[in-house]
Amino acid sequence: MAVIKVEDFIQSVADALQFISYYHPKDFVQAMYCAYQHEESKPAKDAIAQILINSRMAAYGHRPICQDTGMVCAFVKVGMDAKFDCTDRTITELINEGVRRAYLNEDNPLRASMVSPPHGARKNTKDNTPAIVHIDIVHGCKVEIELAAKGGGSEFKSKFKVLNPSDSIVDWVLEMLPTMGAGWCPPGIIGIGIGGTAEKAMLLAKEALGEEINMLDILARGPQTEIEKLRAELYHRINELGIGAQGLGGLTTVLDVKIHEYPTHAACKPVALIPNCAATRHVHFTLDGSGVVKLPVPNLDDWPEITETDNSQVKRVNLNTITQAEIENFQPGETLLLNGKLLTGRDAAHKRIVDMVTSGQTLPVDLKGKFIYYVGPVDPVGNEVVGPAGPTTATRMDKFTDFMLSRLGIAGMVGKAERGQATIDSIKKHKAVYLMAVGGAAYLISKSIRKAKVVGFEDLGMEAIYEFEVEDMPVMVAVDSKGTSVHETGPKEWKMKIVERIQ
């Protein structure tokens, strides 16, 4: 009988969460590098390059891969013959203590994103608890723990439907993928759960995401089971959509498709789909009573050496002196290097801005002619001016954009993923611009930020309004002043190219 010390359990959880905050799994790095070598779309290839450079930097610097350090999901399998040295706290309470310890670590503080209650006040819990915990009692005398840190941009693109028994899973998945937009930061992994009940199918999909990426191995030897055949078909069919990295159009949208299944009622076929983004973070370990888990430290040689692209021919933009004529001269898909003052603002800040203006209150900062970066950064450590600070999904700010353009006169926005048609129309009407930074390159982007200070709504924590002083921050023109969106033109172009190759 193994006796598991409670302190070993807690510290193992904390150490593992720190570990996955800055180390990508080796299989993910290898699969992403294969996608990089294979990619022919320049915008998509550049985006993958940034993700890989960022991954290596995060591993070297022990800082988060992504500013959204995720909500913690824990799968705990407790052996029936395992025993804890203290029973005054539940498994869930022990997991939460590990989460608290990890996210408040002074050497590498992780962003707290959990709010409670989920409606109304939505106050940040400050330590990223509670975790989402699933417990199973199994044979044996050990405790197995699988942890995942799921970012909001991918987790909440999840889909579920109860199909009829004769319906095609492939058809449903291909219908869902384009509706997910680019906020889940492809290329990534798709987890699919088939069977059981509604909640069981979702759980199966989530568990599937923890498996090792092996699609290229399966394709090399040929699929050998029905599930492998389904995985391979979905892999090919999804990539044939041409969505590409960051939704810019390209050859690789998914690196792998994982499927778990479970028996279900004869009258139905429940199917769930959950994506893992470019900040894929998960780890599995076992406690056997011998102490705190020792996770194998990756070798930095496992990361490919990708040099940053030559910026000598890229347009540098001074945000402090930018003119309307300059904005109207930006071309769709053009790469820019931003310099100067850049304000930040996410959902909570936008809502408060709208409420204050409509009630006649004075804002803490003048927004006219300014650019707004949709970001909630990680707290800085050491000599950092700011922690990892990658973009959040711009689509969530669509409901506020016309107000920000028409009433406050902002000049442009920086975020990730696509904008809705009404927002594109508003950008065109006001001759503004939407710029895209690469999701999954948070630590790399933070190195472009030379100064940072809170200039409004400090009580909102990571959702406060910051003023960044940026130097050569790389972005792409995603929606120009004429209303052309690269998230529409890119995938259409590459879908046609792929179809022509197949024919």
Q: Overview of this structure, please?
A:
With about 500 residues, the protein is of the alpha/beta class. The chain folds into two domains: about 5-285, no CATH class; about 315-490, Fe-S hydro-lyase, tartrate dehydratase beta-type, catalytic domain (fumarase). Helix content is about 35%, strand content about 25%. The protein has 15 helices and 19 strands. The strands form five sheets. Strands 14-15-16-17-19 form a five-stranded mixed barrel. The protein has a four-stranded mixed sheet with strand order 6-2-7-12. A hairpin with an 8-residue loop joins strand 18 (about 450-455) and strand 19 (about 465-480). Helix 1 (about 5-20) packs across helix 4, helix 2 (about 25-40) packs antiparallel against helix 3 and helix 12 (about 400-405) packs parallel to helix 13 (about 420-430). It is globular.
